[in-house]
Amino acid sequence: MGNTHWYTMQADEVIRKLETNADTGLSHAEVKNRLEKYGHNQLEEKKGVSPFMLFLGQFNNFIVLILIAAAIVSGVLKEWDDALAIIAIVIINAIIGFIQEYRAEKSLAALQKLSAPFSRVTRDGEIHSIPSRDVVPGDIVLLDAGDYVPADGRLYSSYSLSAQEASLTGESTPVTKSAEPLPDPSLPIGDRKNMVFMGTSVTNGKAKCIVVTTGMHTELGKIASLIQGAGKEATPLQHKLEVFGRKLVYVCLGIVALVFFLEIWRKGPLLEAFLISVSLAVAAIPEGLPAIVTIALALGVQRMVRRHVLIRKLPSVETLGCANVICSDKTGTLTQNEMTIRKIFANGKTFDISGTGYAPIGDFSYRGIPLSETDHQTLRKVLEIGVLCNNAHLKKIDSAWKIIGDPTEGAIISAAAKADVCKEALEKKFPLISEIPFDSDRKKMSTMRSMPPEFLVFTKGAPDVIVKDCTKIYVEGNVRNLTEEDIRVILDKNNKMAGAALRVLGIAFKTLDHLPEKPTPDTIEKDMIFAGLVAMIDPPRPEVKDAVVTCHRACITTVMITGDHRNTARAIGEELGFLKENLKVIDGMELDTLSDETLEKEVPKIAVYARVSAEHKIRIVRAWKKQGAVVAMTGDGVNDAPAVKEASIGISMGITGTDVTKEASDIIITDDNFASIVAAVEEGRGIYDNIKKSIHYLLSCNAGEVLTMLFASLFNLPLPLFPIQILWINIATDGLPALALGVDTVDPHIMRRQARRSTAQIIDRSLGKLIVLQGFLITFSTLLAYLYVLYGFDAAFETFYNNWFNGKTAPYEFDGDIVRARTIAFCVMVISQLFQSFNCRNARRSLFAIGPFTNKKLLLAVGISLAMQVSIIYIPYFDTIFKVIPLEPGDWILIFGFSSLTFIIMEIIKLFMRRVEVPVGVAAAEVAKIAVDEVNSMYATIRKPIHYLLSCNAGEILAILFALVLKLPAPLFPLHILWISMVTNILPALALSADTAGSRAINLPDRGSAKRFMDKRFFALILLQSFLIAFSTLLAYLYVLYGGIPFLLAFYNDWFTDKVIPYGLDGDIAHARTIAFFVVVISQLFHSFNCRNATHSLLRIGVFTNKKLLLAIALSLAMQMSVIYIPYFHDIFKITLLGLEDWVAIFGFSSLTFILMEIIKCFIRKK
């Protein structure tokens, strides 16, 4: 069929040759046969990479090739265990990389299917919207302005049709089309005026065409090789990461070289130095990051689909997070796009119409009275004109009335049906000859119909435009000249109805003796007869108002753009919250008077634009962009495409949008809803945030590994980790948690932040500092655990200090088992990084505020990683490969204790970092009020955990300091202090940070702007309460140490007679330390109640008003009790069992802090 000269044939001959029907189209059975015969209507695509080649591609990586070289070197030196382990890790890494990339490819392919174009075809006498790939030769395709042509077709009929064929011919000027046959069979493509071609678009008019060729047989298919083989476009984020990755490689190679030479300098084995360097190179470079970014983008985009947002161009996801201006159409986006005519103005009267939606059920009345016959005839005239200048159809589908076509035109059809005006009967009576479609510049539409021997012209459009075209008026069945008074009344009525948020259309007509040879708007739409006004309501979408408030809180400027009357635009803008103080409305005429420079200055002050054209939209976008804004612009009509393309983020409507606008856009909103645009911005911010979390996690973990090995080399320590262990850490901790962070839930406060700058680096200075800090904390935890086991806790730091500063070479003299120390360091490194994954969920907010269970994928990833780590410790063959030994239960307590330090310290740091950010933007006044209220509430609350932590820590320090001054044996061991910080500091502090506002912690006077967060009174209170904790602890310690009530006298005699340690004591020092240990813990738990308020009694605040605090105290107390009654812990903590009388003493001494503070509060209140 591809060589047939279809353009030389009559349209009916083409119909016969293709065995189809112009009215009913093909049957579904015939379509099935033709699909089998001709195949799908699509161009051949470049074949994707097969799964096998995708897997092999995982080995085409510089880092992987280095690992393979390391395995070969190990094999040559007969280090078979190392060689096999490295090969196994390379294969596991390849499998994980393959799964990630394969999943990303499938996700992106699914998204491409979602954005595939659709076409309107007639089949079995019904109009259907089908995927363009299912079009077959013989299909009858209906084309409108803005549609893409799905296949090569011969025009059967057309009205004012023109097409843009630049994609095929290179000619940028639209080509006028007509259905007439052409005689010359040798015409080039550009001159075949009765043909439309695949890949071109309709710029004006409408047509019915017969599909003649599809797929690779089309003209575009013949040159398909020109558009195949295009590579994938990297997103700006992927490009930034690629640049960053190259820089990181250089930095890492420098560190690796330093470690290598340090090992050589230490006279370590050359193979070990080489393997350590290779392992660190692998550890330092996050090779899985590109795949994680792709998956995060793909899965985020899939999540957007569920929120009615379809991403056409992946880079727009990143731009969405930067959007700070949204310019939105009104009709259908801000409103429900379900028009109902409420009023008709004709014959000098305003008539009311009842009914809702499109159901043709309702009555007409004038001031509550049924219509007279004259009035009824006048209304019928207006509605008949509206119906004959109309392309919509009213249908009942599943007991509901639906409109096929434009909702505005549908409202006229529905109102006409209420007056028994039948569209089908009128169209048969007055056949359509030609049509001048609506466009936003003319703001009107006209049809020309036959009424032999005359012709009729029907026009509808903006009332102020229609009135200018009219010279006569239809009144009481007669036509007379239109007077200035008539014009004044019409425009006044238009303004009043528009001010009531009604959309108003003017209706006009005229009779012609003959049609011009080439009908144009200038020749047809003049000297018209004014018939009346129709006013319809399009109710605002209920969710839009909240979406606008959300935008303002997120410092996103919202702009409404509409073709409606200024008063209608103002009413809707005020109702939906677009118009705030000092913001104004302007219309297209005012906009025309502003120069580009003036508009650029004025654009931040304008929130609503009325009566605008497509050119105005482009000017608005450019003015905002010159202000440095990232602009999202919505559009649906073909004329909107240039403005949509000009915007930073072009948004088209999925329901009412034309193919041309969709093609020009970056994003399609499938439900045409403004709230979905806001959801898209939220998701865009969330996706970018999640990618940052993954990057944050990978780089901080890698930094921890590199710094651990670097410090071990610098301090001349036995290496804490073997190369094979470093390689395993990357497998066990990098991939899965990083991927889970990439699909984390969106921060609920993300739309209270300002939009990030489009030029902002993904790894900015603050994130860089945080990565280094957390990398150092992981290193600190790992080396601390290593030294603890290697040297024994009592002398760990002293031995290490002496060894290092005396210049002793490794291995040092140590008491511990180095294999056990390395095993514990290995596990601490892994589990520290798993704890770090929770830190990375939010840089400021506590995990407990976010919710530990809100990312179940992360919990699963951490669980799998932990299971993998435990397996290599206890599965016999692996312990040899990884040079580890099985661990005792007590070792795991030690591991989790040291590993949790990273998490605990970061939670404390987050307490100090948290502040409410007050946005500065269009909605500054409203947002500032919300923010100030929240700051006032949080200011008092945030001081509670700080007050608690500082006073508890100071109490511990003072207890030890006073013991030294008083020459007492140390009441607490370092491990006791470490445990106290873990047990009593964190949980109650977190609970206090979420205390009720009513408890008014540290009830200080209102602060001024210069008032310090921690003033003198605050510090005095901390010092007093820390002294009370120290006092209670030492009192209990001395009580047990010297035995009974006379302990103070005994202590006084010992100290003042300068007896040397140990004193003459009657008690058991281990027992005394146990009591002191418990008094410190329980004193601090009692003290958490003190910190709820500095002046009010706990009984007045309410003991049960902070249930989180009660739970935290119960958990802390349970953990402390477990230490005393689980036998294994006795040796670790060097404590003894306690009897009932001991617990009475402990709670008695511990309650002193609480009781004394309640008494002090009583005096403060009286004062």
UniProtKB/TrEMBL annotation:
TM annotation in the entry: 52-77, 83-99, 248-265, 271-299, 695-715, 727-746, 767-791, 819-838, 858-877, 892-909, 946-965, 977-997, 1018-1049, 1069-1089, 1109-1128, 1143-1164
Keyword Transmembrane helix belongs to the record: yes
CC terms in the record's Gene Ontology section: plasma membrane
Cellular localization per UniProt: Cell membrane
Domain of life: Bacteria
Record keywords: ATP-binding, Cell membrane, Membrane, Metal-binding, Nucleotide-binding, Translocase, Transmembrane, Transmembrane helix
Protein's membrane topology: Multi-pass membrane protein
InterPro entries hit by this protein: ATPase_P-typ_cation-transptr_C, ATPase_P-typ_cation-transptr_N, ATPase_P-typ_cyto_dom_N, ATPase_P-typ_P_site, ATPase_P-typ_TM_dom_sf, ATPase_P-typ_transduc_dom_A_sf, ATPase_P-type_domA, Cation_transp_ATPase_P-type
One Gene Ontology biological process: proton transmembrane transport
Record domain Cation-transporting P-type ATPase N-terminal: where: 5-79
Similarity section: Belongs to the cation transport ATPase (P-type) (TC 3.A.3) family. Type IIA subfamily.
Protein name in UniProt: ATPase
Organism lineage string: Bacteria, Pseudomonadati, Planctomycetota, Candidatus Brocadiia, Candidatus Brocadiales
